[in-house]
TrEMBL record:
It is an enzyme of class 5 (isomerase). The keyword rRNA processing does not apply. Keywords: Isomerase. Belongs to the GST superfamily. NadH family. The keyword Isomerase applies. InterPro entries: DSBA-like_thioredoxin_dom, GST_Kappa/NadH, HCCAis_GSTk, NahD-like, Thioredoxin-like_sf. It holds the Pfam family DSBA. This is 2-hydroxychromene-2-carboxylate isomerase. It catalyses: 2-hydroxychromene-2-carboxylate = (3E)-4-(2-hydroxyphenyl)-2-oxobut-3-enoate. One of its GO terms (molecular function) is glutathione peroxidase activity. Its EC number is 5.99.1.4. It comes from Niveibacterium umoris. It comes from the Bacteria.
């Protein structure tokens, strides 16, 4: 089997949302699996001495315009969230816990959370909101609630973020294909070329 694609994403990243909708389809066309890794962009910003996009002069407004255009280009719905960015620890912990048990269901949850935030303008920062969305997918609410509040899953997420930073991940979406890093949903055409033709 060819090496899988590592896909790093933060649930507050609009470009992460777009990538989450298409990366599995792209990979499947080329016989690749995808390993999904939730991260917390706050840790990356801290490591870089950066700030979230809305606080970046000029670039912040451009990016939100660009995301809407990129969504239209990909044929995906998008609505600018009222609250942006948001803390995403609860969503990331829920994904990690579920991913250990059922990767397909975990990706279903990830996409549902992304759509809730970037299509329906539902603030997914609160644990109860994450649990409501998960329950709507048939995921046991009480079990998930207990899981995301444990010290073990909190440490697990921290470890995931630390590994991501050690691999040079600094944004969302971020992909690693056969050791080659690609940052941004606009790099998907390059990833497709790499998968079909090899390194270039």
């Amino acid at each position: 089997m060819p090496a899988p694609i590592d896909f790093y994403f933060d649930f507050s990243s609009p470009y992460g949302y777009l990538a989450a909708e298409v990366i599995d389809t792209i990979a499947s066309k080329h016989g690749r699996a995808v390993i999904w890794h939730p991260i917390l962009l706050g840790a990356a910003f801290k490591a870089m001495g950066a700030v979230p996009l809305p606080n970046v002069p000029l670039k912040g407004e451009y990016v939100l315009r660009d995301v809407a255009r990129s969504a239209r280009f990909l044929g995906l719905p998008f609505k600018r969230p009222t609250h942006f960015p948001i803390p995403t620890q609860n969503a990331a912990r829920a994904f990690l816990w579920l991913n250990d048990r059922n990767t397909t269901k975990a990706r279903e949850l990830a996409r549902a959370l992304y759509r809730a935030y970037f299509v329906e303008d539902i603030n997914i920062s609160e644990a109860d909101t994450v649990l409501d969305i998960a329950a709507g997918l048939g995921i046991a609410r009480v079990e998930l609630s207990d899981a995301i509040s444990t010290g073990a899953i909190k440490e697990r997420l921290k470890a995931e973020v630390d590994v991501a930073l050690a691999r040079g991940v600094f944004g969302s979406p971020f992909f690693i294909v056969e050791g080659e890093p690609f940052w941004g949903v606009d790099r998907l055409p390059q990833i497709e070329k790499w998968l079909s033709e090899g390194a270039f």
